[in-house]
Write a structure and sequence with these properties.
Interacts with translational regulator CsrA and flagellin(s). With about 150 residues, this protein is mainly β. Helix content is about 5%, strand content about 35%. It has a single domain, classed as BH3618-like, CATH 2.30.290. The chain starts with a strand and ends in a 10-residue tail after the last strand.
C-alpha cells in the first residue's frame, strides 16, 4: 500500500508495518493507524506517521536514551486495552518538539506512547500524578520548560 508522508514523501508500506491506536491520539482521535519510520538524518529519531493524513507525523524517540531514570507504572486499564501481558512486549516512545538549534529539542515525558510489539497496538498515556512535564530538554541538563 502506498501512503504520502510528512518527511519521506510517498512510500510503500505493508499491513504488518501498521500500528493501531484504537482510541486515536489525544487531539487526533480520528487518526487510528500509524507507521514508525526512521529519520535517517537524526540517529535514534523516528516519525510516527499517520497512514491517512500526510501532514500528521510526530517525531519520536526512546526516552530512556536521554532519561535513564525515567519511570512510571501503566494502569491496569492500559494493560488490558493493549493486551499487554509481558514487559518484553512493551515499547515506549516520547513525542519530541524539534527545535533549531536541535539542542533546544524537548521530549514529552508526561504523555508517553506505549506500544505492544506483539499485536501492534498503541496508546498515548497521560501520566497525571507525576512530576514529568510535556517539555524536557533532551540534550542538556536544563530543567523542564515551564508552562
Amino acid at each position: 500500500m502506498k501512503i504520502l508522508t510528512k518527511y519521506h514523501g510517498e512510500i510503500d508500506i505493508s499491513q504488518d508495518d501498521i500500528w493501531t491506536f484504537e482510541g486515536g491520539i489525544p487531539g487526533f482521535l480520528d487518526e487510528k493507524q500509524f507507521v514508525l519510520l526512521a529519520l535517517p538524518q537524526i540517529d535514534g529519531f523516528s516519525v510516527l506517521q499517520s497512514i491517512r493524513t500526510q501532514e500528521l507525523g510526530f517525531v519520536v524517540s526512546d526516552p530512556f536514551q536521554f532519561f535513564t531514570d525515567y519511570d512510571f507504572t501503566l494502569s491496569n486499564s492500559t494493560l488490558e486495552l493493549l493486551n499487554l501481558n509481558e514487559e518484553k512486549h512493551v515499547k515506549v516512545l516520547s513525542i519530541l518538539t524539534v527545535k533549531d538549534p536541535i539542542t533546544e529539542t524537548t521530549a514529552n515525558l508526561q504523555a508517553p506512547l506505549i506500544f505492544n510489539t506483539e499485536n501492534k497496538k498503541g496508546k498515548q498515556v497521560i501520566l497525571n500524578e507525576t512530576d514529568y512535564k510535556t517539555k524536557h530538554f533532551i540534550f542538556t541538563t536544563k530543567q523542564p520548560v515551564k508552562g
